[in-house]
Specification:
Elements (H helix, E strand, L loop, with lengths): L12 H38 L1 H5 L15 H13 L3 E6 L4 E4 L11 E7 L2 E7 L1 H4 L1 H76 L5 H31 L8 E4 H19 L2 E4 L7 E5 L1 H19 L3 E8 L4 E7 L6 H4 L11 H6 L6 H11 L3 E6 L5 E7 L4 E4 L2
Parallel strand pairs: 6-8
Antiparallel strand pairs: 1-2, 1-4, 3-4, 5-7, 7-12, 8-9, 9-11, 10-11
Helix pairs in contact: 1-5, 5-6, 6-11, 7-8, 8-11
The structure holds adenosine-5'-diphosphate (ADP).
Length: 412
């Protein structure tokens, strides 16, 4: 497979769709608000016309007494009040002639809105310029333009940063894929000669067994070579297992399986190893009723075996238990020990590849730090998870949880 780590961004549809959708949304909102504003403008002119006296907050009682030509002082005082409020006052005589005006003729265009009210011998006209009537509309319009500009700017900034983030994430995913495929391919290439070496070392040991005069040094070297080759074989196999689990396309064999039987069989498989270490392993499931689920039995067994082997190898606990229990949603398989436990500082990363709590202890036991990563991979490929819970006063409890969708039959 050719490998290339050349960087370069490939545009994806989403890179365009997201900002375009946001910009389109903004335009639609602005148009909608613009329409509302137009209606608001019409309404406001209507209100102003209907209720000019109240709007201008003029003391209507000034004119409650009918006006006569001799009331020039009253008219002037009222005119001053109107000027202060920015309202134009025009007093017309009954035949329409101009008697009084707060604005000199030709000084200002005729007011946009005017209301006439008969008062004694006169008709009193209040007028408001359009700019004054539409002041709130203008303010709202300015607000709308500002909001649209700020919104557009925010969309640009969000787009810029999320785009940069997405490019980084894709780049990381690409490097990660590259690393994974590269390691998997190399491991695959190493596997064949390694199998050859293991076979050759086995033959060599057989041969040494037959030769009575073979020196202890040669025997020791053969044993060492076999041990290291086995360890390397285990590492290569783990890397290949993990790569297979992480390749989405790689199909699993989901078949209807008796989960309790798989756990029992795994327990039986690790029993000799436990016995060698003087560890008791037992099933402590709360119930023993049927539990059938659509799972990849080989992988689930591998996950349970990894957890049991870890507990046997590392915990130092005299007893390791496994429990398969049905939950309200799905089912769980928990492996628990009362051993040394895992320090809190390591818990968050314990399922990461090559993460080991104590590298020397792990190597002594033949571990490479991939066992729990494989367990997590297996759980996730089943749509489930694995979690670590500390046990009081000491020890660990690893819980594999599987979703309800996998369950075919279970005890109620
Ligand atoms: P390894 O291949 O080294 O066994 P794992 O991913 O299975 O790697 O485990 C990671 C580390 O977690 C081990 O190195 C070990 O120190 C620690 N560990 C795992 N299970 C237990 C346990 N039950 N008790 C104590 N430590 C554990």
């Amino acid at each position: 497979m050719p490998y290339s780590l050349k960087s370069g961004h490939e545009w994806r549809a989403w890179d365009w769709i997201a900002p375009l959708a946001a910009a389109a949304g903004l335009v639609v909102l602005t148009v909608m608000f613009g329409r509302e504003l137009r209606d608001f403008r019409k309404d406001i002119i209507g209100w102003a016309e209907r209720d000019l006296w109240a709007r201008t907050e003029l003391a209507a009682e000034t004119l409650s007494e009918p006006l006569a030509t001799s009331d020039f002082r009253r008219i002037h005082a009222f005119g001053d009040e109107c000027t202060r409020k920015g309202v134009r006052l025009t007093v017309l005589s009954a035949n329409g002639g101009l008697f009084f005006d707060t604005v000199r003729r030709g000084e200002e265009p005729p007011p946009a809105i005017s209301v006439d009210r008969p008062c004694g011998e006169f008709v009193v006209r209040l007028g408001l310029p359009l700019s004054r009537v539409l002041e709130p509309v203008e303010r709202a319009r300015r607000g709308l333009v500002l909001a649209a500009c700020l919104g557009g700017f925010a969309v640009l900034i969000v787009f810029f940063f999320t785009f940069r983030q997405r490019v980084r994430i894709r780049e990381l995913a690409r490097v990660e894929r590259f690393r994974r495929d590269f390691i998997a391919d190399i491991s695959h290439e190493i596997k064949t000669p390694l199998t050859g070496i293991l076979g050759a070392v086995d033959l060599l040991e057989d041969e040494l067994g037959r030769q009575a005069d073979a020196g202890p040094m040669v025997r020791r070297l053969a044993e060492l070579t076999r041990g290291e080759a086995r360890r390397m074989n285990e590492l290569v196999q783990s890397i290949l297992d993990l790569a297979r689990l992480e390749r989405e396309g790689e199909g699993l064999e989901f078949v209807e399986t008796d989960v309790r039987a798989v756990v029992a069989e795994t327990l039986a498989r690790v029993a000799p190893q436990a016995a060698k270490k003087g560890v008791r392993v037992k099933d402590v499931s709360a119930a023993s009723g049927p539990l059938t689920a659509r799972i990849d039995a080989r992988l689930v067994s591998q996950a349970v075996a990894n957890l049991l082997t870890n507990a046997i190898r590392y915990s130092g606990s005299p007893e390791v238990t496994v429990a398969t229990d049905v939950r309200s949603r799905g089912f769980e398989i928990a492996v628990e020990d009362r051993g040394i436990g895992i320090p809190a500082a390591h818990r968050a990363r314990i399922f990461d590849r090559f993460h080991r709590v104590d590298a020397s202890r792990s190597s002594e036991n033949g571990g490479v730090g991939l066992g729990l990563a494989i367990v997590r991979g297996i759980a996730r490929r089943h749509g489930g998870e694995v979690r670590l819970e500390p046990v009081e006063p000491r020890g660990c409890r690893f819980v594999l949880s599987f979703p309800d969708s996998l369950v075919i039959a279970r005890d109620k």
